[in-house]
Design a protein that fits this description.
The complex is a heterotetramer, with 2 copies of chain A (about 200 residues) and 2 copies of chain B (about 160 residues). Chain A has about 200 residues and is an alpha+beta fold. Chain A contains 5 helices and 6 strands; from the N terminus they run αβαβαβαβαββ. In chain A, β5 and β6 form a beta hairpin. The two termini of chain A are about 30 Å apart. Classes of the chains: A alpha+beta (about 200), B alpha+beta (about 160). β5 of chain A pairs parallel with β3 of chain B. The structure holds adenosine-5'-triphosphate (2 copies) and magnesium ion (2 copies). One adenosine-5'-triphosphate (ATP) sits at the interface of chains B and C.
Chain lengths: ~200, ~160, ~200, ~160
C-alpha cells in the first residue's frame, strides 16, 4: 500500500518526462526521488592515529554527499530534477540558460498539477525569459490543460494574449488608481495554439 | 472549483471598490509596467491568508493599504474578498460558493470572514486545504519567482509535492 | 576638499534625477546619502528601575532605525534610492512593479556610469521585465551614451536588435556547440531611437 | 578604452576556438534560448578573474569546461582571452592593447597571463583597476540580476559607487 505522496510523485514523474519532451523537443528529463540517508554522525572510535578514513561512513555516504554537499545536516530526502536538452550532455541544472530554467520549472509545476490539480493557477510573467518559440510551447500546455483547472496568466507580452478565453486590460489612471476592463475573446475552431492531433 | 470573483478595496492601487469576475478556462491580464497587474495577484494571495509582508512586496503588512496619490488621500483600511465557485467539489457539501474576506487597518487590526461569518486564519487555511489550495499557495507563481523552483533544494521540491498530495 | 567618493556621488545624484525624468515621464527621483550614525551601544547606567527610556539613545537614533531597522549593527552609511512615478505617492521601493524596479536599477547604473564611465558595459537581458515603451526609453539611453562607453547588450528580443551598430547572431548546433555570426548594421541619419533634439 | 576581442576555447558551449571581434558603440547579441549568449557574458567575467563558480552558474569552477555533447568528447581545459583596446587610456602607457588570458583544467590547475606573460590574479586585478574596471565588475549586469540593485541594502549601493570612484 503506497502513501499518497508516493502515488502523487509517481504520476508527477511520468508527467514530467512527457512534458520535457514537449518543451525541449529532442531532449529528455526525469524526476528522481532521493531516499533519506542515515545522518553521518561522527562517532569517536579507537582508530589508528594515522588512519584518515572517516569513522562513520556507511555505503550511502556518496549519495548523501551528492544530495546536498553544502549541508551535512541534510538527510538527503528530496526530489532531484535532471534535464538534458537535445544534443547536449547531461550536466548541472544551474548551467542551463535562463529560458531553459524557466521551462524546467514550468514542467515541474505542470507535472504536479496533472497528478493533483489545484482549482486555479495564477502565473505572473512566468514567460519573461522565454523566446517566441518557447512561449508558444508553454501556451499550448496552458490551453491543453485549461479543461482541468482555471489559469490566470499575468503578462505584458502581446503573444500571450492570444491564448486567452477572457482578456483583462489594466491601466493606471490619475491618483495612481488601477482600472480594469474585460473582454471575452472568441476562440476559433482552428486554434493556432492547439495542435489538431488530440493532445 | 474555480475562482469566481474578487473584490478589492483600499488594497494597493485599488482605493475604491473594484470587482472582477472570472470564468473557467484561460484568463490573461495585460497592461503596461506598473499599471496594477501583479497587485491583483498579491490581492488573491493576501486574501487567502499570506502571512509574510515581503511575499506581497511590503516590509510591514500595512504597506498593502492604498497610500494615496495625486489628488487622493490614503485609505485607512484594505479589504479583499475572494469568491470560489465550489460546484462539484468535495468542499461544497454545504455551499455552492466559498467566500473568503480579509481586512487590515492602519493600526494593524485585521479580520478574516468565511461566508460572511468572522473566523480565524486557521479556519481559512482548513477550508483552502479541503479545496486543494495548499498552505504554500504553490499554485500561485509570483513575478520573478519561476526560476526559484529550479534553484531550490531537492527537499523543498519534495515539500511542494507533499503539500499537493 | 572633497573625497573622490563625494565628487562621484554628487555627479551621480544629479544624473539620477535627470535619468528618472527620462525613464518615468512625469515622475521624480533622487539618491540620498545616509550619513553614518554612531552605533547604539547599550551602556549600563544608574537609571530608575521603572524608567524604560533606552539608556544609550543619541538624537540620531531615529535615522539609524530608518537606515536599516533589521540590522542594529548597521552604521547607516549608504545610498538610499527614492522614486515616485507620475501621479503616485512616494512609497517603499519594494512595492514598485517588476518593470519599474528594472528602470530604477538601470537609472542607478547609468547615473554612476555618467559620473565615472567604465570602458565597457555588458547588459544581459536587463530589459526582460520592460514593456515596449520602456524598452524604447532604455534603448534611447544606450544609444545616447554609446559615444562614452562600449555597450554589449545580450537579448532574445527583436526590438532591442534595432539599437545595434553591430549584431551578433548566436545559434546552438549539434554537439551542443554555439556558433556566432556577426553583421554590421547601417544606422540611418533619421534614427527612430535617437530624438532629433540634442540629447 | 573598449573591448576589442574575445577568444573562447573549451569554455561552456564553445569547445573549439571561437574568436569574436568587437567595435566601439552598441553591440547586440541575439539568439534563441540556450544558444550560448550568456555563456559569452560568463566568458568575459571569468577571464577577468571571477572567483565564485556560482556567478558563472557552476558549483565548482571546473563546471565551465566544455562537458561534451552528441558526438563530442568533453574537453580537458577551458581558456578565454580578452583583449582590451587601450588607445587613449591612462592604462596604455606601454601597450595599445591589454590581453588577459585565463586557463583552467579538470584537475583544477589554472593560470593567468597578461600580454602573454604568466602572472597572478592580483596583477590582473591591478591592471583592471587602472582601466576603471572595478573588482566587482559592476559594469557587467548578469541575466536576472538587474533588480538586485533595487533590492540591495543602501550600504551595498555605496560600495558600488566607491568602487567606481
Ligand atoms: N499601498 C499602495 N498604495 C498605492 N499604490 C501602490 C501601493 N502598493 C503598490 N502600489 C503601486 O502599484 C504599482 C505596482 O503595480 P504592479 O506591481 O501591479 O504593476 P504591474 O502591472 O505588475 O507591472 P509590471 O508589468 O512592471 O510587473 C507601483 O507603481 C506602486 O507604486
Ligand atoms: N560546461 C559546459 N559544457 C557544455 N555545455 C554547457 C556548459 N555549460 C553550459 N552549457 C550549456 O550552455 C547552455 C546555456 O547557454 P546560455 O546560458 O548562454 O544560453 P542563452 O543564449 O543565454 O539563453 P537564454 O536566452 O535562455 O538566456 C545550456 O544549455 C548548457 O547546457
Ligand atoms: Mg508585475
Ligand atoms: Mg541567457
Amino acid at each position: 500500500i503506497r502513501t499518497l505522496f508516493e502515488q502523487t510523485f509517481d504520476a508527477a514523474q511520468d508527467n514530467f518526462s512527457e512534458l520535457i519532451e514537449h518543451l525541449f523537443p529532442g531532449g529528455r528529463g526525469r524526476l528522481r526521488l532521493l531516499e533519506p540517508t542515515p545522518k553521518l554522525v561522527p562517532v569517536p572510535m579507537a582508530t589508528a592515529p594515522d588512519s584518515d578514513a572517516p569513522a562513520a561512513a556507511p555505503a550511502a555516504a556518496t549519495e548523501a554527499d551528492e544530495a546536498d554537499p553544502d549541508e551535512p545536516g541534510d538527510d538527503g530526502a528530496g526530489i532531484e530534477i535532471e534535464v538534458t536538452p537535445a544534443g547536449k550532455a547531461s550536466r548541472r541544472l544551474s548551467l542551463l540558460s535562463g529560458g531553459e530554467k524557466s521551462l524546467v520549472a514550468l514542467a515541474f509545476v505542470f507535472s504536479v498539477f496533472l497528478a493533483r490539480p489545484s482549482p486555479f493557477y495564477i502565473l505572473d510573467e512566468v514567460e519573461a525569459a522565454l523566446d517566441d518559440a518557447n512561449i508558444d510551447r508553454f501556451l499550448q500546455l496552458v490551453r491543453r490543460f485549461s479543461d482541468r483547472a482555471q489559469f490566470v496568466v499575468v503578462t505584458h507580452q502581446k503573444r500571450t494574449m492570444d491564448a486567452a478565453d477572457v482578456l483583462y486590460g489594466v491601466t493606471m489612471g490619475s491618483g495612481g488608481i488601477s482600472k480594469v476592463i474585460s473582454r471575452r475573446l472568441p476562440r476559433s475552431e482552428q486554434d493556432p495554439l492547439e495542435p489538431t492531433a488530440a493532445a | 472549483m474555480h475562482l469566481k470573483s474578487i473584490s478589492i478595496k483600499g488594497f494597493k492601487s485599488f482605493p475604491d471598490r473594484m470587482n472582477l469576475v472570472f470564468s473557467p478556462g484561460v484568463s490573461v491580464i495585460v497592461g503596461p509596467n506598473g499599471c496594477g497587474k501583479s497587485n491583483i495577484t498579491d490581492a488573491v494571495l493576501w486574501a487567502l491568508g499570506e502571512q509574510s509582508p515581503t511575499t506581497v512586496r511590503g516590509s510591514t503588512m500595512q504597506d498593502v493599504i492604498y497610500n494615496g496619490g495625486a489628488g487622493q488621500k490614503p485609505r485607512r483600511e484594505a479589504e479583499v474578498e475572494v469568491v470560489l465557485d465550489a460546484t462539484g467539489s468535495a468542499a461544497a457539501e454545504q455551499f455552492a460558493e466559498i467566500s473568503i474576506r480579509r481586512t487590515l487597518d492602519r493600526d494593524g487590526h485585521g479580520s478574516y470572514h468565511l461566508n460572511g461569518a468572522r473566523c480565524r486564519l486557521a479556519d481559512v487555511i482548513e477550508t483552502l486545504a479541503d479545496a486543494n489550495l495548499g498552505g504554500d499557495m504553490h499554485s500561485v507563481i509570483g513575478q520573478g519567482k519561476v526560476e526559484s523552483i529550479v534553484l531550490s533544494k531537492p527537499r523543498e521540491r519534495r515539500l511542494l509535492v507533499e503539500e499537493a498530495a
